[in-house]
Amino acid sequence: GSDTEACNSFKTYMHTCFHMKDQGGLKYFLGLELARGPKGLFPNQRKYTFDILDECGMINCKPCNFHMEKNHNLSSKDDELYSDPSRYRYLISRLIYLTITILDITYY
């Protein structure tokens, strides 16, 4: 049979096991934006990345290329620690998720 027949058969079976509804083509899955092409589905993190930039107030920032020197100290002893580190941890967890879902950006 065709792939469409197999999909319809699978959906019919799943309806007997679970309460569910067909919402059409898959566009998002676990935070990944999926683009459908002739060769399959392709993950895209454009929206997720813009959401992070928007949350940080950096949506209008321009990218630049720079390399940081090794062992550069980013803070001084006079700097205050975050009063609420949960916001920082939340942002870092989102950036880590971004780098593990789209591997090309890890080494830029």
Written account of the structure:
There is one protein chain. By secondary structure, the protein is an alpha+beta fold. The radius of gyration is 21 Å and the shape is elongated. A hairpin with a 2-residue loop joins β2 and β3. Strands 1-2-3 form a 3-stranded antiparallel β-sheet. It has a domain of 68 residues.
Question: What is the CA-CA span between the terminal residues?
Answer: 45 Å
Overall mean pLDDT: 83
How would a textbook summarize the main sheet? Answer: 3 strands, antiparallel
The counted number of beta strands is: 3
Radius of gyration: 21 Å
Approximate strand percentage:
5-15%
Continuous helix count? 3
Q: Which blocks of ≥5 consecutive residues have pLDDT under 50? A: none
Helix fraction by DSSP (H/I, runs of at least 4): 25-40%
The strands making up the biggest β-sheet line up spatially as 1-2-3
Report the order of strands and helices: HEEEHH
Net shape = elongated
Structural class: alpha+beta
Organism: Cajanus cajan
Protein name: Reverse transcriptase Ty1/copia-type domain-containing protein
